[in-house]
Amino acid sequence: MDRPSAVERLLREAVPHRIVEVLRTQIEQRHQAQGVELLLSDYATSRLQPVGDMYHSGGSVPVHGSDAGRAFGAQAPHCVHDPKASTTTVHLPVTVRGDRLGVLRVTLPDSEGAGPGSDALEDLAACAQALAHEVVVAERDTDLFLQARRAERLTLAAEMQWQLLPGRSCVRDEYSIGAQLQPAYAIHGDSFDWSASADELVLTVNNGMGEGIDAALLTNLAVNALRNARRAGLELADQAYLADQAVFGQHHGSRHLAALLLRFHLPTGNVEIIDAGSPRIWRLRAGVVEAVELEAQMPLGMFQDTVYTVQDFTVEPGDRLFFVSDGVYDALSPAGEKYSVRALARAITETRLLPASQVPRAVLESLLGHQGSGPVVDDALVLCLDWHGRPGAG
């Protein structure tokens, strides 16, 4: 059997919109597969959508309660035998560095119900991994995969915001991150960003004021100003200062953006942080949920020449940090009751056994249960970071 490197080469050489077709041909030849299909997670992380199926759910399946969703959630292959058809369907996670894109579904002939052997399963998993990398690259040149993620149409503001994000989850030895925005198809002002190097992780969580396109434009300006300063190698306080000046220079104080800026030192767990009118931070440590108290400073763009001061705290292996925007706290029930801190603490505790990638969606589902079926007044963001610590760092 050819090694997966041959498949990787063929996928790299394929035109972007045909990579699934090329992989399908290879798997059919290598494993006599009767069906090969790529399902991508929609923007709400609630459904898995077949590539080519846009705006309707005729071929989509729910993330919760489906075989494909089980592979997606567990991030492990899941096999289902159909004795009537004499087939076994293998569901394989399609993931890039912890960012869960979807599931590759492969139907194999299997009259005895023994399932694929370990070599075949390993080869299929390698094919799914190679496909994941190529999907990320292909999205620069084709809308095929971005369209497949849509269970419904995005607003223009949401289109702008989703294109701004680095991903929805990320995994490294030192940490795991998961994040989600709500309402996924009509988000406007909330956003997040991260970037890591050998010894640092820089993370920002943002909440731009306003609604619709105005909020999305404000957030785009601030995030790109922060990126520009970060990529110039500036310190955290200077990043905040330059982003503050960019927003103030454009809006002269009439619009501003609340932000948290953090820089994690990966070998030690020391964290530099600036609270610029931010979303709040909660920490789950040893089963106890507590707020991380910070000195509040001015939001970005509120005043000219604002000076920002860096604060410090330390994370320990096993810590879980939550970053929550005001759209969570201000969410109202049908009776007009706000989603309380106590309810948030309960949701944090109830999701303690889930991996970071699954936590934001679970917390937001609790929020949706509180809001009921009425219209969502404000967008909401939940970001979860699990700190593992650097292996061997003591």
From TrEMBL:
Transmembrane segments: none annotated. Its EC number is 3.1.3.16. It is an enzyme of class 3 (hydrolase). Keywords: Hydrolase. GO terms for molecular function: protein serine/threonine phosphatase activity. The keyword Hydrolase applies. Residues 172-387 form the PPM-type phosphatase domain. Pfam families: SpoIIE (PF07228). Coiled coil: none annotated. This is PP2C family protein-serine/threonine phosphatase. It comes from Streptomyces argenteolus.
